Amino acid sequence: MKITLKYFGQLVDVIGAPEETQTTSFKDSAQLLKHLKETHAISHIPFQLAVNQKLIDADEAVSLNEGDVVALLPPFAGG
């Protein structure tokens, strides 16, 4: 299945792109997140995960489906 990953803030610098489409066999967000932390040096960066614009808890395993958009959102500052 193909999903789109979107990165923001520091994560763009570490990953090297603001967005990518991946073909994956991961069934849920927990498996995907584990893979991303193992393949990229992102464990030290605080971020929240969103699947199809819905924020999810870090320990939540949301089912992934064809065409889903997963965003990794670091804390935003501003006023």
Account of the 3D structure:
With 79 residues, this protein is α+β, with helices and mostly antiparallel strands. The chain is globular and about 35 Å long. The chain has a five-stranded mixed β-sheet with strand order 2-1-5-3-4. The chain is built from two helices and five strands; from the N terminus they run βαβαβββ. The N and C termini lie far apart (39 Å). 18% of the residues are buried.
Offer a quick outline of the entry:
The chain is 22% helix and 29% strand. It has 79 residues and is α+β, with helices and mostly antiparallel strands.
Strand content: 25-35%
Shape: globular
Q: How many helix segments?
A: 2
Task: State the order of secondary-structure elements, H for helix, E for strand.
Answer: EHEHEEE
Radius of gyration over alpha carbons? 12 Å
Please list the strands of the largest sheet in the order they lie side by side. 2-1-5-3-4
Quote the average pLDDT: 92
Query: How much helical structure, as a percent, in the residues?
Result: 10-25%
Terminal Cα span: 39 Å
User: Can you count the beta strands?
Assistant: 5
Main sheet: strands, sense, barrel: 5 strands, mixed
Query: Structural class, from secondary structure content?
Result: alpha+beta
Q: Which consecutive residue ranges, at least 5 long each, have pLDDT under 50?
A: none
